[in-house]
Amino acid sequence: MTSSTGTTPARTGDRQVERLDRVIIRFAGDSGDGMQLTGDRFTQETASFGNDLSTLPNFPAEIRAPQGTIPGVSSFQVHFANYDILTPGDRPDVLVAMNPAALKANITDMRAGSTIIADSHDFTSRNLSKAGYSDNPLEDGSLDDFNLHALDLTGMTVEAVKEFGLSRKDAARAKNMFALGLLSWMYGRPTQGTIDFIEARFAKKPAIRDANLTAFKTGWNFGETTEAFAIRYEVKPARMPEGTYRNITGNVALSYGIVAAGQLSGLDVLLGAYPITPASDILHELSKHKNFGVTTFQAEDEIAAIGAAIGASFGGSLGVTTTSGPGIALKSETIGLAVMLELPLLVVDVQRGGPSTGLPTKTEQADLLQAMFGRNGEAPIPIVAPQSPADCFDAAVEAARIAVTYRTPVMLLSDGMLANSSEPWRIPDVSELPTIDPAFATSPNHVADDGTETFHPYKRDPDTLARPWAPPGIPGLEHRIGGIEKKDGTGEISYDPANHDLMVRTRQAKVDGVARSIPDLEVDDPCGRARVLALGWGSTYGPIGAGVRRVRKAGYDIAQVHLRHLNPFPSNLGDILRSYDQVIVPEMNLGQLSMLLRAKYLVDVQSYTSVRGVPFGAEELCSVFMDIVKNLSAPDAANHS
Amino acid sequence: MHNLTELPFPGLRGVPVAEFPGNRKEYTSDQEVRWCPGCGDYAVLSAVQGFLPQLGLKRENIVFVSGIGCSSRFPYYLNTYGMHSIHGRAPAIATGLVTSRADLSVWVVTGDGDALSIGGNHLIHALRRNVNLKILLFNNRIYGLTKGQYSPTSEPGKVTKSTPMGSLDNPFNPVSLALGAEATFVARTIDSDRKHLTEVLTAAAQHRGTALVEIYQNCPIFNDGAFDAIKSNDTKADAIIPLVHGEPIRFGAPGEDGLGSKGIVLDPATGGVRVVRVADVDAADVLVHDARAEDPTTAFALSRLTDASNLDQAPIGIFRSVDRPTYDDLARDQIRTATAGQDRFQALAGLLAGGDTWTVE
Ligand code: SF4
User: ipTM, 2 decimals?
Assistant: First the structure.
């Protein structure tokens, strides 16, 4: 299935209009060219038009990598459709390339027949050689397989805005708005949102504001008047469930989830964080929401960040710390402390390519085992993972629920893809969100032999095995907790072997018991006769789902199930795994979930892995699934199963 | 969520006062104290158990947070709220606690290894932020709990299990370090001088902001006698340079005027201070200690009089006590300003539905 599933061309005015089900556009340029902003604006226009959409920003780790070079290329991909889509798409239908490096870095993703719009102005011999071209690809015929539009975007922009008296450099900077105007015309996007946006953003700089507005409108008008573009495209709004929607990125949704968790539990929130890509935007976002009793503490390091969070939890707040994999490594000891203290703590890991500094701006799922086991001693913690950008909201609320209810640190595993990508989010009704009960201890819970009432900080709730949470300030509940092993019940220091054995097993049993509070998994198996199950976790939900759809569309059966809870697993997972002939587990690591599933359930799941820093493609997973499905349905397969 | 009660102590503003004065017994937990016999920690614990009730606070609003090391067992022996955390991290943990709770009196107990080695970063940042917490730094100049390695305050050349040919690194002077880290309150006292210790702790409690109190603490097992020069009756008059706000800094055997025969004067040659025989200078030139001076230069110069090896000479007292807004007060002010007069639940709906929205019917 390609995206050019055009239907009957229609004509409006003198321009042919072609209807499409879906389109993928990639804006690419130098990191100083404003491609993220351009993509973001196009996305907002598309969202307000009512298409379903999914986006994928891709930018270098350096703030300004050397200009004009391939490492300095920044891009933004947006996939929009008239039906519900799952991924930002594999291969763009349109590439906007603002310079030779942007073309070179992205051309291998383009399929023959797709459209390339290039700013010919920047294809100078100097820029060509920086990108490693010996000849100009716009002129040497090497792009003959594509529908190429080599346009002097910069020149036209500078010409259009010259009345505003800007320097040539400032004038040229508005070229991204020219490109946005042109693309907006091509796909019939509503423009008012972008006009309002430019007016607000540059309110204090009238000349820049006017130049950007003019560039945007000129880009639109250029599309309308030039002969170069014979066709406009139309992608009808998608039919989505009733409700009010907004477009949202994973980091913003996750931040809102934390704000909501504070409100739903009645707890103040203290976020301790140290700047780190790709998690910093959560710190930025939460720092704007002090009006919800959210304190953000930018700590001196990752350890202080989680330290402050656990200190706040001890004081009766919801302590939260946000970071990426390297930060988790630094926080490990304190997470272990939180396991011992049995205090609520939300630890967010926005995973990126590793190990070490790795690929800071790229995505990966290779921290699962770190989350599971990356501490000294037996230190189990619940793990929750969102499956899409908007789902980060619900996942954060769920992680906070477990943390507060079970008095435990909980790891929320997002990733770079979820963090920066966006999709429409059906805004929840606040009154329908689940409440979270902190159930603070208010009175002594134990009567000593002599009849005096005392407080035992490790006397547990028989159902959840959670200990009482008694923030300072209540007379009679004064108690001391710490990282040394403690006596069951009293919490006093204890080195007794049998007590340690009991406490280790009890902490494990408490985390295992979280499974009783989470719903059974529901397998998506429309025909009910699939023999192959595709199973994933985290951000691979989209590509796995898209791959599964393609398999079904081709007439084959395949089931899909996706894990939100990685520790403990949902209670019915073992039964599900055992009821399929083959389970395929795609992951952006070297098979970490597969290892856990094999170890726990003794099921021979098949692992498919990739660690290229980018999400799986739907096409790629479709072919992986097809191989398995076809193999199983081959005549002699029954003998082997 | 709690009444703000005005106390005479700015440092305790917001902490509820007790209806009835407490006593030492109430502040003593039922846990058996497990330090070595003769350890200086006992004296400090006893002083603190006697001093805390005098603050007149509700006991349930006092919290002790410690790191790892011999002295970090301290919270277990006090019947207040407490946390015995992990190595070096107590200032960070206490920062989160203080920032989220204006109604608590929060104390950190730490040692030279805990605060100055593994936790050095948290210490300096707590000091610069000026979080309203009181840090008691038990300096025994050795690693006790791990059985006797040299510490970041050990004298150079120290022979220990890990340094059989003598330690190589230059030590920290904790007071100099704290002053360099923008601390607003820095003092030094001695475990065995209960009166001075209590005075300094009281001043620390009074101070609104981070107070660093270095307590010279003898470890009879691994570093016995480290403070003999300033403790022995034969030498202490010459070793202790007493810092008393508003008084000339004089020490040594009494001179004709009944004050110490030695004094401290500013030294224009170095920009620092030096020791003189008072008889050799105009008595009016002797430096009058000003702990409230905004500029920490002189306090720092005084801290440099500390003899790094044998402590044959060391200023004792409050080096610096100045006012500066605290991090936690400012953070809570921002929250208070932002939350003023809003219905949070309504606001949540508004937040979620913010930005460009569209409706599907
Ligand atoms: S080792 Fe030293 S500091 Fe530690 S308890 Fe024993 S005497 Fe005190």
Answer: 0.96
